[in-house]
Design brief:
cell membrane; ion transport; two-stranded antiparallel sheet; transmembrane; 2 strands; ATP_synth_F0_asu; 231 residues; globular; single chain
């Protein structure tokens, strides 16, 4: 039993090995891209929406409403990023029911890359919203003594995101493999269902935490001060 899809080499491209993590990541990307192209190919006002388009609109609106509740402001800039994170993690975990498919989220390299994307997105969104000086001033709050602690806190967020996602997905895969040797017919079905449930929960939590971190970086520095200045 391999503990990570990184250990499995699928094929070689110009002498470069392509492991299972990269291969299955490409599959998830192809599924998301292909499904979105098929569903939105007739996206015109004169064409009534079909059930697939309706389902996609419900998903997008649900993600947007969740982001608006957290950010308490315009959500368009967060919808693309957090929504993409949610769909990638969710589809990766949903494809677990396909025989032979190994979710790329069961690899620490994938979860680390997702966490790094959040770490990069937080300052980018913060600088765009508050300016370079306004964002970096938050690292000095409430006092300049807190600078190293705020920096450590920023990096610990990414580490916790990566380990949390990897641990939940990987633990389910390991338990299912163990139970497969004990009862090869009944337990794997139950574990797959539990894996789908926990996978969707993890996709939701990951996207929500990313939204919380970005929203905290883009919120006004001191709303009470702003109100006094306006008055």
């Amino acid at each position: 039993m391999t503990l990570s899809p990184d250990e499995t080499i699928m094929f070689m491209i110009w002498g470069i090995p392509v492991n299972a993590t990269i291969f299955y990541t490409w599959i998830v990307m192809a599924v998301l891209t292909g499904a979105s192209m098929l569903i939105t190919r007739n996206l015109r006002p004169d064409v009534p929406p079909n059930r697939w388009r309706t389902a996609l609109e419900v998903i997008v609106q649900g993600i947007q409403s969740q982001i608006e509740e957290i950010s308490q402001g315009p959500s368009r800039h967060l919808l693309y990023f957090a929504g993409t994170l949610f769909l990638f993690v969710a589809v990766s975990n949903l494809l677990l029911v396909v025989p032979g498919f190994e979710p790329p989220t069961s690899s620490l390299s994938t979860t680390t890359a997702l966490a790094l994307s959040v770490l990069v997105a937080v300052p980018l969104f913060g600088i765009t919203s508050r300016g370079l000086g306004g964002y970096f001033k938050t690292y000095l709050e409430p006092s300049f003594i807190m600078l190293p602690f705020n920096i450590i806190s920023e990096f610990s967020r990414g580490i916790s995101l990566a380990i949390r996602l990897y641990g939940n997905i990987m633990s389910g895969a390991v338990i299912a493999a163990i139970l497969l040797t004990v009862a090869p017919f009944f337990f794997p079905v139950v574990m797959d269902l539990l894996g789908l449930l926990t996978g969707m929960i993890q996709a939701y939590i990951f996207a929500i935490l990313a939204t919380v971190y970005i929203s905290s970086a883009t919120k006004p520095a001191n709303p009470s001060t702003t109100q006094k200045d306006n008055s």
